[in-house]
Task: structure prediction
Amino acid sequence: MQKKVEPLEAANIVSIFSTPVYRCNFSRAFTRAEMDFIQKQHEACRPNLGNKSTKDSYILNRKIFRSIKKELELRLQDYLDKVLCATPGICSYITQSWINYTSKGEYHHEHSHANSYISGVLYLTANKNCDQIAFIRKSYFPLVPQPQVFNDWNSEMWWMPVHTATLILFPSSLAHSVGLKKDDDLRISLSFNTFLKGKLGVDHKLTELKL
Result:
């Protein structure tokens, strides 16, 4: 006679060492003057691996982007406060910034951002029905059973849909890419890198770094 198997008690599965991806909407529509300037920059781009980007890699220093840059700085501080819970006096600042243009048949190669702490992408134009960004998990998987359902633990890639005015902040070490664009709309995104300033670490632990 087969022994009756008692049901297992429900387990508590805990996520540890998660990767934070901060996603929100920009607070306003982009102005006609801003979009005219952005479209004008498309005429003088440099080729990228898969798409095109502006020759100016400090584009947020332009006067026309003063308002946009101010809001991005507020969001970066919100990331530090809510995700890192950083001690007072530590803040981030934007270093390089540039605009990407992706047309039909183009893509954005897989990459991460060196010499940066937090990176961000603000979508100036994007098709909500098909545009998305992929984040790639670079951890080594010694064994890979084929999942029936993908979740936070077994996924090696995570696609995140985007639309016009979506802002995404993420650790600069996180690999990401954009797949082949199949629709006719031009996707325009503003990317930027950041660094920290303030006092990091603790004196008595010999980890102090003043920036």
